[in-house]
Design a protein that fits this description.
Oligomer: single chain
Structural class: mainly beta
Strand content: over 45%
Largest sheet: 9 strands, antiparallel
Shape: globular
Helix content: under 10%
Order of helices and strands: EEEEEEEEEEEEEE
């Protein structure tokens, strides 16, 4: 990735997926500055690992999409909410306790925000045990959790139509 202003590194610039390794069989395609998938299941896993960082991700999902941004992944072959922190994107999750804006099984969302049908921005800060998630400028998670300390980032495709753009990170 390229390092730009104030230490931000662009992981996905709308052109190539060189910073990521695909896992699974999701049909990721780069089109018009976004990476998108609409069938299969899988992840785009960053080739680099990160401990303490700020991450910015823009995403678009349809109403019944299931996606997420996994951070500090412990096992890139088998990524789950148990061995990573899953910042969820799932408006219609059957158990809404850990819906869009939550960290699954760690922190329920402070605000109920639907993401479907528009571009959204996650800002995710992980600093030691302190995890903060902001969705479209609204804080949805602010929690202390001693769990996973470092690992790659993974963008998930689970169901529906999922698009990502402008993925940037800076280490803290």
């Amino acid at each position: 990735g390229q390092t730009g202003q104030a230490g931000w590194t662009t992981l996905f610039d709308g052109k190539s997926l060189t910073s990521f390794a695909p896992v699974g069989d999701a049909n990721w395609q780069v089109l018009d500055g976004v990476v998108q998938a609409n069938k299969g299941t899988g992840f785009l896993v960053s080739k680099a690992s990160y401990g303490d960082f700020q991450l910015k991700v823009e995403f678009w999902v349809d109403d019944d999409a299931n996606s997420g941004v996994f951070i500090r992944c412990q096992d890139t072959k088998q990524i789950t909410a148990m061995n990573a922190y899953e910042v969820n994107i799932f408006d219609t999750r059957p158990d809404p306790a850990y819906r869009t804006g939550s960290i699954v099984d760690v922190a329920k969302p402070l605000s109920m925000i639907n993401a479907g049908g528009k571009w959204n921005t996650f800002e995710i800060t992980a600093q030691k045990s302190h995890l903060v998630v902001t969705l479209n400028g609204v804080k949805t998670v602010d929690v202390e959790h001693m769990g996973h300390t470092r690992g790659p980032i993974a963008l998930q495709y689970g169901a529906g139509t999922v698009k990502f753009r402008n993925v940037q990170i800076r280490t803290l």
